[in-house]
């Protein structure tokens, strides 16, 4: 296991990163939570409990956590919340859509255990709120902004006055895979992801100094949203264009069309570690399927 503290904006915002050192993982995938003026946004993964506890006990002054908001129910964002509530009496807040997912807890497949901890997501009673989320000094007031797509309950926090936003997994570093297949609790819709990003870009118009904090990425600016939207637009256009070309030359079976689209767009095809370990829950095929389901003229 490992963890790292990354300060931003003269230490106004602190990112706490945690990752597993499981030897089955060929690359480092970290879970992020962000601290600002006593507000913790997200609570890392179930496997981080011991390290998260140690970090929280070191916090002093304005950084002492007095509330936590979960952007969505996934275990790499909500995993440490039960410990924070039980041992530190920190109130845990989330959108009304998030509450029922965490009330009963859930288990997850082996590949997610290698990343986030083998015990699953413990159940927790979360306090629903429609916002705004005001930090303990009163210097920050975050509006809650729904951003479905990665998960149906994903909610961003946006402080327009101070030009700071926390968006969870609403924006990814790169779009080459999506969750899908037989996954009941992880299913991504690329058209929803795109439309949510488009809405966020619109409501932050004129915010030239906007600092956006993204899980698994860190701090980015508003241009990053535009770059991700363009990336998705290009994938959307390419997928439909290649599908039409394949159908025109006689392809009929959808599975073969999807496989050929993957080969033509990414050349190297699938990263088998993702596809095999996840039993198809993470794959480029899932991404292509949701791109094709999204009409070009919508």
Explain this structure to me?
The protein has 298 residues and is α/β, with parallel strands linked by helices. The chain contains ten helices and 15 strands. The strands form three sheets. Strands 1-2-3-4-5-6-7 form a seven-stranded mixed sheet. It has a six-stranded mixed sheet with strand order 8-9-10-11-13-14. Strand 9 and strand 10 form a beta hairpin. The longest helix is centred in the last third of the chain and has 27 residues. The termini are far apart.
Topology record:
Blueprint lengths: L1 E7 L4 E7 L10 E7 L2 E3 L7 H10 L8 E3 L5 H4 L2 H8 L3 E3 L4 H5 L6 H7 L10 E2 L4 E2 L6 E6 L8 E5 L4 E3 L11 E2 L10 H14 L7 E4 L3 E3 L1 H27 L5 H13 L5 H6 L4 E2 H10 L5
Number of domain units: 2
The H/E string reads EEEEHEHHEHHEEEEEEHEEHHHEH
Task: Please state roughly what percent of the residues sit in beta strands, choosing from under 5%, 5-15%, 15-25%, 25-35%, 35-45% or over 45%.
Answer: 15-25%
Strand order of the largest sheet: 1-2-3-4-5-6-7
| Rg over CA atoms | 20 Å
Note the gap between the termini: 44 Å
Shape, principal axes of CA atoms: globular
- CATH architecture tag of the largest domain: 4-Layer Sandwich
Give a quick set of tags describing it:
alpha/beta; Metallo-beta-lactamase, Chain A; seven-stranded mixed beta sheet; six-stranded mixed beta sheet; 2 domains
Brief sketch in words of this structure:
The chain has ten helices and 15 strands. The protein has helices at residues 49-58, 75-78, 81-88, 99-103, 110-116, 190-203, 222-248, 254-266, 272-277, 284-293; strands at 2-8, 13-19, 30-36, 39-41, 67-69, 92-94, 127-128, 133-134, 141-146, 155-159, 164-166, 178-179, 211-214, 218-220, 282-283.
């Amino acid at each position: 296991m490992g963890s790292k503290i990354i300060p931003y904006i003269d230490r106004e915002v602190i990112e706490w990163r945690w990752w597993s050192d499981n030897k089955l993982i060929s690359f480092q995938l970290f879970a992020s939570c962000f601290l600002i003026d006593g507000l913790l946004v997200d609570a890392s993964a179930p496997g981080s409990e011991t390290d998260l506890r140690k970090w929280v006990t070191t916090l002093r002054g304005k950084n002492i956590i007095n509330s936590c908001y979960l952007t969505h129910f996934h275990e790499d964002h909500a995993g440490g919340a039960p410990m924070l509530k039980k041992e530190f009496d920190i109130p845990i807040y989330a959108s009304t859509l998030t509450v029922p997912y965490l009330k009963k807890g859930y288990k997850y497949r082996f590949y997610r255990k290698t990343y986030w901890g083998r015990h699953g997501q413990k159940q927790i009673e979360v306090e629903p709120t429609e916002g705004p989320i005001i930090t303990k000094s009163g210097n920050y007031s975050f509006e809650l902004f729904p951003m479905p797509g990665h998960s149906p309950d994903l909610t961003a926090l946006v402080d327009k006055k101070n030009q700071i936003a926390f968006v969870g997994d609403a924006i990814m570093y790169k779009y080459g895979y999506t969750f899908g297949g037989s996954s009941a609790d992880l299913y991504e819709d690329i058209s929803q992801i795109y439309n949510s990003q488009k809405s966020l870009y619109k409501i932050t118009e004129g915010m030239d100094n906007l600092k956006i904090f993204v899980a698994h990425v860190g701090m980015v600016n508003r241009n990053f949203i535009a770059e991700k939207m363009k990336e998705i637009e290009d994938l959307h256009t390419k997928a439909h264009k290649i599908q039409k070309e394949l159908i025109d030359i006689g392809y009929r079976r959808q599975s073969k069309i999807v496989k050929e689209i993957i080969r033509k767009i990414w050349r190297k095809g699938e990263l088998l570690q993702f596809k095999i370990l996840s039993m198809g829950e993470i794959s480029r095929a899932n991404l292509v399927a949701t791109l094709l389901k999204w009409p070009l003229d919508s």
